[in-house]
């Protein structure tokens, strides 16, 4: 519409604005109605997107979950000695009661070491001052006082060169560099060296007798009493690691680790409950030696899962029915234009908009199809009826009711049969029988398959909405242009009339004064 300021009716005295508005009222009404349709379509699309999310969540989280028996199964795990044994999640517990006796825990090999004291450099005698990480090799033995001296010790088959100026921390780091399978630290005046892995694994720290200074360094670092001549090589002694020994259902097993997996059980041993020796193997020491592990189906969890589903179903079906069948006037409410809102109070506008939203899904065929699918599958299923899940009177429009005692009795009597009614079952030949959730899932899957009208996963015709938006935009542009052109035309006609009247008045005044 033109932004030109018009001064009309000054000569004629006519209310030109009102006359033009009346002349183009039909055209403006057409544009307003098209814009209302566009606003209503936008609101419908917004609400359908929200509804689509609600329906999809129910389809995947409820129906999709309960079409698999895993959606029902829940086990109660019994472990009679959690202080001695931890049973990890994911364990596939065999049927029946499993007996375990822990005869020996796996330990790691420890290197024998003594606390190290500094020596008096003047007397060469040991002091009462413990060595620290910063203490040098030359400060801990009268035989290795030369900071510039070089010594060689062996870690396994690898040689490690040690200087008299090396600190205890330097030496610990050199050992770790040549063998990363070791834990090496220096603390409390002592080297602490062990295998990272548990089990009967050797640690070989030695020095050749060819150079007595090397042996002196070895004795200074680990203690003279801990170093012995083994076949001509001076070797540091160890407290040898042990393997775990346990008995499972009457048979002995051995492991280098305290975390074991046997027959589906993933366990970690923490305490011994029995005894072990090479002659007798794993034996019980008292009546509490046997750890009993078993599982049983949690009947209560199956009941809760079914009740939870029915509750979610009833909430959904009640909400959808309220949107499909509006209980009061079916008068069509359209969005308001700015001119219409200017004549109404805020409260009246709010009520008007609420009525628009109330009627958005009224008699919607796509929503009705979803409701009919749910009711058709669940409302008259004989298996569900037999376990106490039935519909109420027709006025409730598909809501389900549960006979609690009947459902609990059905689960207690044959839980697998109850689950099969929902999730189906596989017979001995591998043939699958569909449950009610399989049937429901397949029917809804067909509804949300891709077509020329809707995209995959859409419960409504989203592609049709897009076409309607394009058509409305084209129509609004065309009728808006027509409306503005006609309005400009009428204003131009009245302007021309005003000009003619001005000219006529001017001529009349000339004759009147002649």
Task: Describe the structure in your own words.
The longest helix has 52 residues, at 462-513. Strand 12 and strand 13 form a beta hairpin. Helices cover 42% and strands 21% of the residues. The chain has 13 helices and 25 strands. It folds into four domains: 1-52 and 452-504; 53-71 and 300-451, no CATH class; 79-106 and 242-296, no CATH class; 110-239, no CATH class. The strands form nine sheets. It has a five-stranded antiparallel beta sheet with strand order 1-21-3-15-16, with no helix packed on it. The protein has a five-stranded antiparallel beta sheet with strand order 8-7-11-13-12, covered by helices on one side. The model has no long low-confidence stretch (mean pLDDT 87).
Reconstruct the topology from this structure.
Layout: H1 16-23, H2 25-66, E1 75-79, E2 85-87, E3 98-104, E4 110-111, E5 117-119, E6 126-130, E7 150-155, E8 158-163, H3 168-178, E9 182-187, E10 190-195, E11 205-208, H4 212-222, E12 227-230, E13 233-236, E14 238-239, E15 244-248, E16 251-255, E17 259-262, E18 265-269, E19 274-277, E20 281-284, E21 291-297, H5 299-324, H6 338-342, H7 346-358, H8 365-378, H9 382-386, E22 389-391, E23 400-402, H10 404-413, H11 415-423, E24 425-426, E25 432-433, H12 436-447, H13 462-513
Antiparallel strand pairs: 1-21, 2-18, 3-15, 3-21, 4-14, 5-6, 7-8, 7-11, 9-10, 11-13, 12-13, 15-16, 17-18, 19-20, 22-23, 24-25
């Amino acid at each position: 519409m033109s932004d030109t300021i018009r001064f009309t009716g000054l000569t004629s005295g006519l209310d030109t604005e009102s006359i033009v508005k009346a002349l183009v009222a039909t055209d403006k009404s057409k544009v307003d109605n098209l814009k209302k349709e566009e606003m209503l379509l936008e609101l419908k699309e917004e609400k359908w997107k929200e509804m689509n999310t609600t329906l999809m969540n129910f389809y995947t989280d409820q129906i999709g979950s309960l079409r698999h028996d895993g959606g029902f199964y829940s086990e109660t795990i019994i472990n009679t000695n959690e202080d001695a044994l931890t049973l990890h999640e994911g364990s596939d517990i065999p049927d029946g009661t499993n007996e375990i006796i822990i005869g020996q825990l796996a330990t790691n090999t420890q290197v024998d070491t003594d606390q190290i004291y500094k020596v008096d450099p003047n007397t060469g005698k040991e002091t009462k001052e413990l060595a620290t990480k910063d203490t040098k090799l030359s400060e801990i033995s009268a035989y290795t006082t030369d900071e510039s001296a070089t010594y060689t010790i062996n870690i396994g088959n690898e040689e490690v060169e040690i200087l008299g100026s090396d600190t205890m921390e330097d030496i610990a780091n050199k050992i770790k560099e040549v063998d990363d399978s070791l834990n090496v630290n220096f603390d409390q005046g002592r080297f602490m060296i062990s295998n990272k892995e548990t089990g009967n694994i050797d640690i070989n720290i030695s020095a050749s007798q060819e150079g007595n200074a090397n042996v002196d360094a070895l004795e200074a670092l680990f203690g003279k009493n801990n170093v012995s001549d083994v076949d001509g090589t001076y070797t540091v002694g160890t407290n040898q690691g042990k393997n775990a020994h346990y008995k499972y259902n009457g048979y002995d097993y051995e492991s280098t680790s305290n975390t074991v997996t046997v027959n589906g059980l993933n366990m970690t041993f923490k305490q011994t409950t029995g005894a072990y020796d090479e002659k007798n193997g794993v034996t019980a020491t008292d009546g509490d030696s046997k750890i009993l592990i078993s599982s049983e189906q949690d009947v209560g969890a199956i009941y809760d899962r079914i009740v939870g589903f029915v509750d979610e179903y009833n909430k959904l079906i009640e909400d959808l029915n309220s949107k499909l069948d509006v209980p009061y006037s079916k008068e069509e409410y359209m969005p308001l234009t700015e001119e219409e809102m200017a004549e109404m109070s805020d409260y009246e506008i709010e009520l008007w908009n609420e009525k628009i939203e109330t009627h958005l899904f009224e008699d919607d065929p796509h929503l009705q199809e979803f409701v009919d699918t749910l009711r058709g599958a669940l409302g008259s299923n004989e298996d569900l009826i037999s376990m106490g899940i039935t519909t109420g009177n027709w006025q409730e429009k598909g809501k389900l009711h549960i006979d609690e005692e009947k459902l609990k009795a059905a689960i207690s009597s044959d839980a697998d049969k109850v689950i099969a009614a929902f999730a189906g079952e596989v017979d001995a030949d591998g043939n699958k029988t569909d449950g009610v959730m399989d049937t429901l899932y397949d029917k809804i899957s067909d509804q949300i398959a891709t077509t020329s009208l809707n995209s995959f996963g859409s419960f409504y015709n989203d592609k049709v909405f897009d076409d309607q938006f394009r058509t409305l935009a084209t129509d609004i542009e065309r009728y808006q242009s027509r409306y503005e052109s006609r309005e400009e035309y009428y204003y131009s006609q009245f302007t021309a009339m005003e000009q003619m009247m001005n000219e006529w008045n001017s001529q009349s005044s000339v004759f009147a004064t002649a």
